[in-house]
Amino acid sequence: MTPFLIVGGVGLALLLLSMLLGSIFDFLHILDGALSGTAVGSGLTLFGASGVLVLSNNGPAWLAYTLAAVLGAGAVAIVGTMTRKLQAASVQVPYEVVGLTGVTVSRITGAMGEVQLSHPREINKRMAFCEEIIPSGASVTVTEVHGSRVKVEKTAA
Predict the structure, then answer these.
(1) What is the pLDDT of residue 93?
(2) Which residue, 114, 102, 105, is CA-closest to 136?
(3) For residues 118 and 156, is the Cβ–Cβ distance under 8 A?
């Protein structure tokens, strides 16, 4: 049972570290993400857990190793596939938001506010700020981008 506990512990540590410090484990992205740190950590964790479960229920050692190997390899394949699909879906072509128009969702001040921009990719509200106070529901135009926030000015009606 000790080998399963060690392998499962190492897998859990690798899984947690790769989820918390993902960019550090980029060197593990072999075979187009199939062997990412998350996938390997998941596989090792499931390998250890399934082996411990079989042995703790008085199962034979051959069954523990066989089941652990099958479940561990399956976890690596499934998590690797899911990781690749999520990464492919999150890769977006950047686009310019300066010049886009929108509507204020809340009152915008020099420090805070929200705006909904009129663009097919703009499905979320953006944090916004401005030089003058703009009331909720007013038409605005983006003049600058500062990180995730946009600077807007009221559009002439």
Answers:
(1) 55
(2) 105
(3) no
Burial 74-99 (b: 16+ CB within 10 A, else e): ebbeebbeebbeeeeeeeeeeeebee
pLDDT digit string (tens) for 7-27?
A: 999 988 888 887 777 655 555
Kindly tell me the sign of the dihedral angle through the C-alpha atoms of 66, 68, 69, 70. positive
pLDDT per residue over 117-136, tens digit each? 887 776 678 888 888 888 88
- Looking at residue 140, its amino acid is V
Tell me how crowded residue 110 is: count the other CB atoms within 10 A of its CB. Answer: 11
d(CA 4, CA 55): 9
3-state SS record for the chain: CHHHHHHHHHHHHHHHHHHHCHHHHHHHCCCCCCCCHHHHHHHHHHHHHHHHHHHHCCCCHHHHHHHHHHHHHHHHHHHHHHHHHHHHHHCCCCCCCCCCEEEECCCECCCCCEEEECCCCCCCCEEEECCCCECCCCEEEEEEEECCEEEEEECCC
Please provide residue 127's backbone torsions phi and psi, each rounded to the nearest 5 degrees.
-70, 140
Decide: 42 and 11 in contact? Cβ < 8 Å.
Answer: yes
What percentage of the chain carries pLDDT values higher than 70?
Answer: 83
